[in-house]
Amino acid sequence: MASMQQAIFTVLIIASGLYQDAEAVTHIVGGATGPGWTFQANDLTFYDTWASKESFNVGDVLVFNFNSTLHDVLEVSTDDLKTCTTPASPIQRNLTSNGSLTISTSGTHAYICGVPQHCTFGMKMTITTVGASTPNTNSTNPAGSKAAVGAIKSPFFTFNLLLGVMLTAIAVATV
Ligand SMILES: [Cu+2]
Fold it and tell me: Is 4 domain-assigned?
């Protein structure tokens, strides 16, 4: 009996673990009561400072609140961010106000406003996902494996939860 209860406990722990991992967090860039995505000419590292206090995971969503007649947001390479270069084909782009971009891989991600000169006035931010050791955008191994794991978690969560409930019911019935 003890071993069965142990097994049930294990299943429930796994199910709850999957639930927490699958839960995506929405981050309001610059803070919920912050300035949104705009010029930071007096503090060029404003968004990096904000990001350093946040925990980012794959699947999380970044919400960039901005005036879409003035700004946009692009995900670019870290090299493009360093030189404030607006690439012709950014990794991701959102031109709408409240533009959100999803963190789809582990590692480091760089964001800029694509309007000329805006990056140099502080509209730039670099983030790194939790647990990513190398500050390198194209570290294929951790990025690939983590993304793959993330993709299969959600559909399996329901299955695992149901399995846990079922096993608990069986345990209650047989005790
Ligand atoms: Cu801008």
Answer: no
Domain CATH number, residue 77: 2.60.40.420
82 CA to centre of ligand 1 in angstroms = 16
CA distance 102 to 82: 21
CA of 2 to the centre of ligand 1 (A): 62
The verdict on residue 162 lying in a domain is no
Q: How far is the CA of 117 from the centre of ligand 1 (A)?
A: 8
CA–centroid distance, 136 to ligand 1, in Å, is: 25
92-94, strands of its sheet edge to edge: 92-94, 73-76, 108-112, 124-128
Specify if 105 maps to a domain: yes
Q: What is the pLDDT of residues 85-141, one digit of tens each?
A: 999 999 998 988 788 999 999 999 999 999 999 999 999 999 999 987 655 444 444
* pLDDT at residue 2 greater than cutoff 90: no
Q: Domain count for the chain, please give it.
A: 1
Decide if 5 is inside a domain. no
Helix%, strand%, coil% for the chain, nearest 5: 40, 15, 40
What is d(CA 113, CA 1) in angstroms, rounded to the nearest whole number? 61
